[in-house]
Specification:
This protein has about 290 residues and is of the alpha/beta class. It has 12 helices and 6 strands.
């Protein structure tokens, strides 16, 4: 399975290698121009080590790259690497979070928009603390109370992207099973449904319910997430979660397939207005 930032490092490295070749330079000559050792250029081009945006600028200047759009793309690729930075608050939890989860948070924190199909549980960005605790405890057996507290803390910290300026735009299609599955007991579920009603009214959140009456649909194969980035569609990625790892899909044909699938799900789901009424009705009867 490929991790998001690792994929981006390789993509960035391949682009820089192509630009160096077009400039007629060897890796050694490029290293001399920027005052580095040749091995550093090689590690960057093979994606085996991260690279700071400032270093990317040095290389682009050395290669005579003046295309502003291309420069912006490569700088965004460098900034998306999981190597530190002002947005990477989750580094404080490196000893607790597995790499795949850190990769997911990295993408989520930098994306402009997120489209998600959820078939089992409420999206993490919309969970209440009590619901998040119940879900995490059920999903990961044998957790100590301290570790459980930390994972819930991370889940809640992730929700800041919806309050950022500008906020992440979240579009979610929820299978009706998400609303009907009682997680944590009746009281916890009632408060979670109320939270969904509140979230559905936010301008940056679009919630749609896919009722059981819709029958079989393209999402029966499982949940997925599509992250989009404003700077360039070349960074868009699909994330598929598995029990022990995550798969990141970045090929254009994969992105198109999942984007079309999400569009189809939105068509078959209730409208946002009807979904809000449906969630509120479910909450009233919970």
């Amino acid at each position: 399975m490929q991790h998001g930032p690792a994929v981006r490092r390789r993509k960035l490295g391949a682009e820089l290698r192509a630009l160096r070749t077009s400039a007629g330079l060897t890796s050694g000559e490029a290293a001399q121009l920027v005052g580095w050792h040749q091995s550093k250029v090689s590690r960057i081009e093979t994606g085996t080590s991260g690279v700071k945006p400032a270093d990317v600028r040095l290389l682009l200047d050395a290669y005579g790259v003046e295309d502003s759009q291309l420069r912006e793309l490569l700088l965004v690729l460098a900034e998306s690497d999981d190597g530190g930075g002002r947005h990477h608050w989750w580094h404080a939890y490196r000893g607790v979070l597995p790499p795949t989860y850190r990769d997911f948070i990295s993408l989520e924190s930098q994306a402009t928009a997120m489209r998600t199909l959820e078939t089992t549980v409420v999206p993490g960005l919309l969970q209440t603390p009590e619901y998040a605790r119940a879900v995490t405890k059920a999903a990961v057996e044998g957790l100590s109370e301290d570790r459980l507290d930390t994972l819930v803390e991370v889940r809640l910290a992730r929700q800041d992207v919806l309050r950022a300026d500008p906020p992440l735009e979240l579009s979610a299609v929820l299978d009706e099973a998400v609303l009907r599955r009682e997680v944590g007991g009746p009281g916890v579920m009632a408060r979670q449904l109320e939270r969904l009603v509140e979230a559905a009214r936010l301008p940056q959140v679009r919630l749609q319910v896919l009722p059981f009456a819709a029958g079989a649909h393209i999402g029966v194969t499982g949940p997925f997430v599509v992250f989009s980035f404003s700077s360039t569609s070349d960074l868009n990625v699909v994330v598929l979660d598995h029990l022990t790892s995550s798969l990141y899909l970045e090929r254009k044909e994969d992105l198109q397939a999942y984007t079309e699938a999400f569009n189809a799900l939105q068509i078959h789901a209730l409208s946002p207005e009807d979904s809000l009424d449906y969630i509120a009705g479910t909450a009233a009867g919970a």
